[in-house]
Each structure stands twice: as structure tokens, then as C-alpha cells.
Request: fold
Amino acid sequence: MISRIPTYWVALGIVIVITVWVASGAVESAKTTAPETEGSQSEQLPKVAYKTIEATEVSRTITVQGQVEPWRELVLESRLDSYVEAVHVATGERVKKGDLLITLSQEDLPAQMAEAKAQAAVAKSELVAAQSLFKRGLLADTELKVKEASVATAEASVARLNQKLENTIVRAPFDGVIEDRRVEVGATVQNGTELLQIVDDSKLKLVGQVPQQYVLQLSFGDDVMAKLINGAEIRGRVSFIGYQASIATRTYRVEAELDNPERKRLAGATATLEIGLGEVEAHVISPALLRLDEKGRLSVEHLSEDDRVVVTPVERVKASNTALWVSGLPHSTRLITLGKGFVSQGQQVDAVPESELTNEGID
Reply:
């Protein structure tokens, strides 16, 4: 008697056979496709384009706002109470050192001088007589000293009046130009009244305020280029560096000296000062290639020898309308120019020279 196999056992056997067959096929497929996976992984490296740049020696500069000042200027003041008797110069007139500028009235000074000289003569005669008596023992030492003091007082009065007479004549203290005449003939003046302003424009000063982080890098004799508002450029050399920072701005006053043989009217003009800080090794790059690193520093991305991404902080050296010079990179640098937005520090990349790119860019 033949036993009948239940239907559900037959169905279960068929499922088991199919499962074993499918599993064996998947294993074979995995064996044959494994090498292709390794190849596809190598093809998935991000591609970047680079340009090799070399460092050059460039002048490092800082730029500050400043102004042009005359080499020296002085407001001449009256040194006595009087009135203006004559004015010998006009505003804008050029003068030489020692030229007569203004004459003040002597009033009764000559009479006072004559009186003082007479009193001095009398005092000297009395001193001579006193010395003779003192030598003969007929005059006390204290009385002799009184006569000597009288002579000294009289001579002092003569010297004081002589100085007042000299102060009635106002002369140019140096070569220059009369910038402003502040009195006219007949004007009453007192000690300290301003008479006129004289400016020495044979030289000029370029004056600016330098931030404290740069002041220690400055040296006497450093080149300074000033660009004026009309586009003209003048050059000088650092002649003074302040020793104390401004409390308000924490900047130091810096002056540069330059000759002005043509006596150009530049004093008082505003200027943009470019101060040289010496030579430094730098690379020229496009400002578009700059980025901020995780510490907020200006950085650029370039390649290591094994084609890994390197992010290096840089310092600005100088700039133009189209380019930027930076320091801090290796002398010869493979600078990432395309694809840098899709890679990060230390990442392996497929690097292609920029010159080999097709019109379509990076594939």
C-alpha cells in the first residue's frame, strides 16, 4: 500500500530548493562583481584643478589715511605792549631768514633807555669812589656791596630796555612764505598778540597714525608713498615714529620727510599713505580663492605631495585691483583653483593641472 505524501510537505521542499539555488547564484555574482566595486571606489575621488605658483620677493606695506603738513610753521607774536608802525610784507610773500616783517612803535623806549644809561653811569662812578675808600679802610664792606648792587641794577635796566627795543623789530626766523597776516598798520598790540603766520614749505611731512600691531615693524628711513586726492603721488622716508600710542585710537604718529624744491602747495592736503615694511616672500593669488578656516583666519587650499587637501592660514602683504599678495605658503605651491568647494582638509583628491582642463571644466 503506497502512502501518500501530504501536499504541504511537497510545497515546503520546493521552497527550500529554490532558496538554496538563489543563494548560490548571489554568492557567485558577488565574487564576479567585487573587483568592479574596488575600481568604482577609485573613480569616485573628488576631482580638483590646481595651478602651480612660485613665491617672489615683494615689498610688504601697510596703508593708512593721513595728511601733508609743512615742515615747520610758526605764529609770530608781539613781545611788548605797543602799536603797529609798519607792515613790510603781504600775505603769500616769500621771505628769507632775517627779513624785516613788522615794525612796532618804540614810543618812549628811547627816552627810557637814555635815562637808564645815565643812571648806570652814575652808579659806576659811585662804585669807583667806593672802591677807593674801601681800599683805604674808610668804607665798610656792606656799603661797598650796596654800590656794586646799584651798578648791577642799572645795567639790568639797560639790558631790559635794549631787549624791548629789539622786540619792536619783527624779523623772519627762517625762510618761508607768509601764510597769514593778522594785524594792520595802527593796530594796538599787547604782549602775546598774534602778528602773522610764516610757513616753511621747503620740505613737507607726511603724517599718519599707524595701528599698534605694526609699529614695531617700522624703521627710520622706510619708504612712504602718498597718493593725493587728485591722483598725484609723492614719496618720502620715515623720519619720526611716535613713542606713545594715542589713548583714544591706540595708534602711533608716524612722519615721513620729503623735499619740496618746487614749493608745491600741498600742505594740508589729505593723502593715503603706503608705508613699506621691508621685503617678504609672497605669492600672488586671486582674492576669490581666499576662505576662512575654522578659527576665522584667512586661508587658502592647496595640495600636498600625495594629492591631499591642505588648508594654510595666510597674511595679506599687499593688494591691487585684480590681485592679492599673501605670505605663509610653501615656496612652490599647487594652489587649488577649481573644485575647492567640495573638498576638506586632509581629503585625498584626483588633482588635474588647470592647463589640462577641457572647456567643460572638471568632469
About this structure: The CA atoms of residues 106 and 280 lie 65 Å apart. The radius of gyration is 45 Å. The longest strand covers residues 56-77. Residues 7-43 form the longest helix (37 residues).
